[in-house]
Amino acid sequence: MGDIVVAGHICVDLTPTVDTNARIDPGTLIGVGPVNISLGGCVANTGIALAELGATVRLHATIGNDELGRIAERKIAEHSNLSADLSMSATLATSYSLVIEPPDTDRTFWHHTGANAEFTGAQLQLDSADLLHVGYPPLLPGLLSDGGAPLVTLFTRAHRNGTTTSLDLAVVDTASEAGSYDWELILGSVLPLTDIISPSVDDLTSAIGAVHSDDWTVEAMAEKLLAWGAAVVAISAGAEGVLLRTAGAKRLRDGGRMLAPLADRWANVTLRMLPRRVDKIHTTNGAGDASTAGLLFAMLGGADPRAALEWAAASSAAIVTGAQPNPQVLRTLAPHLVPLN
């Protein structure tokens, strides 16, 4: 199984334990429980999940010269399959999120972009990597200048290196600078160089949904991403699971060292996979990233499309239960997973 580079957005997640009465009332004191300090963002969530699955992963991101940055470095060092190439900003603080997640309620993020603003990918060394996974451009202003030119440059360089490219998005804050960008222009420019894209419905709706009619379904989203040039599209749709759509064999053969060998089995596929049931939901934070990790790991292992979606669903379910998607956990959650090469 080849090496993977996961690059882009990283932050430290600060998640206080709150109950259903959590609220913000000016001038009052609201009691909360202990705070959980963990890594967040695509680089951490997807990278750690891939490492737990058994892949060899190199992380590339930008942090600040501060205590949160040192926490990020220490937490990455806890994982034996991870190595990190972290740039340090001289002026910006490490990115962080306050994650408010009351029981049985969707989570809310208060997010500081911080040092992520300096990430452009220009210093990223691909070497012999078979796969480059990048996330989340809406939270990486340095990738979006000039209509996404730095992202296009990075993926062009990856393709010249024979590296398969993978992209994950994030919800676009319409009140932020990212909300003013022409996302159809950005995606139209980078998707011909994007071999795998794994956004959520919310990501796509926030980026380009406003310019489409009311029939903007997940199927229509997938069709649009394929038309713009992506080879493999995997869209997460919450309780409706993941929709997988793929382009023809020729486009897949142009998809670098990881994707090209799968071209014949993965061409012109349409599949849906519902989420795997779990007894108790511990968190949904990072579940989408773990789904992407399971998909990519299975593809690296030569899985067929249905088996890859089963790996994605099992990896996501592990996170939802409060565990990491390591082999022991997956054997319990999904004992019939197809073994990989």
Automatic annotation (TrEMBL):
Which Gene3D superfamilies does the record match to this protein?
3.40.1190.20
Kinase keyword on record: yes
The record places domain Carbohydrate kinase PfkB at: 2-323
Q: Which InterPro entries match?
A: PfkB_dom (IPR011611), Ribokinase-like (IPR029056)
Query: What keyword terms does UniProt attach to this protein?
Result: Kinase, Transferase
Q: Which domain of life is it from?
A: Bacteria
| GO molecular function terms listed in the Swiss-Prot or TrEMBL record | kinase activity
- Database matches in Pfam families: PfkB
Record GO cellular component, one term: cytosol
- PANTHER family annotated for this entry? RIBOKINASE, SUGAR KINASE
- Protein's name according to its UniProt entry: Sugar or nucleoside kinase, ribokinase family
